[in-house]
Amino acid sequence: MNQSNRPFSGLRAPASARALILALAVSALFPSVASAAGNESPAADKAAAASSEAPLAGAASSDASQAASASQAQAGESAPLSQAEIQAAIRAQLPGAASTPSAVSEPSGSHVARKEFKLPGTHWVNQHLDFVHPRNSAIATGSAPSALETASVDLSGVSVTDGNGNAVTLADYQNRGDVDSLLVLHRGQIVYEHYAHGMIEERRHALWSMTKSFTGLIATDLIQSGQLDPSAPVTQYVPELQGSAWDGASVQQTLDMTTAVDYAERPDADPGVVQYMFAADLLNVGPLYQGPKKIIDFLKSLKKNGDHGAKFEYKTVDAEVIGLIIEKITGKSFPTLVSERIWAPIGAQTAAYALQDSGNAYLAGAGMGAITRDLARFGEAVRLEGRYNGQAFLQPGTVAELRKGGDQNAFRAGRPNAREGSSYHNQWWIAPGNDHSFEAQGFGGQRIYIDPQNELVIVKTASEVNLNIEPKPTDLDRPIFDAITTAVTQAH
């Protein structure tokens, strides 16, 4: 096999903390990547595992170690770590780390306790992705955060039955699914809020593929305003993609992921999600990897395979194409679009972030991060069809278009076991017609669940890594959400 075509030839021992932390996270999230790569020795695995559990005192060395030790002796083990100390510890253990400061700094008051600091861990990565990634930009807030009132409801009695017939309480669900945060809004009020695994209110969590729903919402709003033609060919807006898989595909087919692209969202596919992560600079490329190292180059390299519009195939690359389209027709960057069209109008309390590839292109398919409360504000604003915080920031028909859903036949052609009547439309997951709910979903258990009929929004961030167990923790999302809905509506 030609070395340059090997799907995992670039997955070598990384040279920076960013790459090591992300590689460890991916090896946990995609177990088959590490085993298929065959590049890591058992000794390296043990060393990586040891480093992932190393507390600060063992992580630092030389000047950084002395500085950390002196600071620790002076302030005590319970004193919080500053961002500078964390960076020093990472750099000392893994040279070259965090050489470019994050554009979005860690919020004040949200530092972890010194005795709790460990490197790395999937929860830590999801809560600090902007910190370990060298390039990201802030998604700015408005002048003041919108109010979120609290009207707590006791959900301790919430329980469902899993696929094995076992009772699962809400606490069991949160533990089993590695839930970092869970927030429930009813009629705009917080009725339940839970944080775990180091996650706190002020900390941004990686959204992964929930980013797609922000991208899709903006595209839908541009369609409703007449700025974007959904029936137009993709190449009308992005001529660089002529000769690629999207040559002949429409904007709508790309929004609904019914394009016929020779790509699969699997770690064992080539081209697939691992090559996407190389291009997105989410995984460090080794010296033998000769594939595309920027998102636009990766998109241009992909070829057509089948007929556009025939069936749904979930593909992050489609979202990246939509990201290019909305940037080109507005002349604005992705973070500027999210800020002006969503983040500032909803009164977000904290700047979100958007990651960039090595060419500074924004990852419109998987690159955002935000705090849980702001995701709840976003979900509530969408539930209210863009009429929120004293503003009307979406076109009147935008949310109605989302909820209309996509081609159900194409969806079932790609997902034969999907619920009857469900679909995927404009980067949102749409429930059957009599259900009325729709949601944003992201890898590892991220969810923004919107139920207009019951005036409910549920936000979940998670770092689920047990992907090989049955039933999967995410299989319980819908039963738990239904049970929460019943408990909340009965209480109010």
3D structure, described in words:
- The protein is an alpha+beta fold and 492 residues long.
- It has 2 domains: 3-133, no CATH class; 205-263 and 302-491, Beta-lactamase, CATH 3.40.710.
- 37% of the residues lie in helices and 13% in strands.
- A hairpin with a 5-residue loop joins β4 (159-161) and β5.
- α1 (17-29) packs across α2 and α5 (62-75) runs antiparallel to α6.
- Mean pLDDT is 81; it is low at 1-21, 27-78 and 89-119.
Helix vs. strand class: alpha+beta
Strand order of the largest sheet: 7-6-17-16-15-14-13
Number of strands: 17
- How much of the sequence is in beta strands? 5-15%
- Assembly classification: single chain
Poorly predicted regions are 1-21, 27-78, 89-119
* CATH level-3 fold name of the largest domain: Beta-lactamase
CATH class call of the largest domain? Alpha Beta
Query: What value does the Rg take, in angstroms?
Result: 22 Å
**What is the CATH architecture term of the largest domain?**
3-Layer(aba) Sandwich
- Count of spatially separate domains: 2
Distance between the termini: 63 Å
**Nearest-integer average pLDDT:** 81
Mind telling me the CATH superfamily name of the largest domain? Answer: DD-peptidase/beta-lactamase superfamily
Report the biggest beta sheet as strand number plus sense, adding barrel if it closes: 7 strands, antiparallel
- SS summary, helix count: 20
Described by the principal axes of the CA atoms, the overall outline is globular
Helical content class: 25-40%
Signal peptide: 1-36
GO molecular function, one term: hydrolase activity
Biased composition (Low complexity): 60-79
Keywords: Hydrolase, Signal
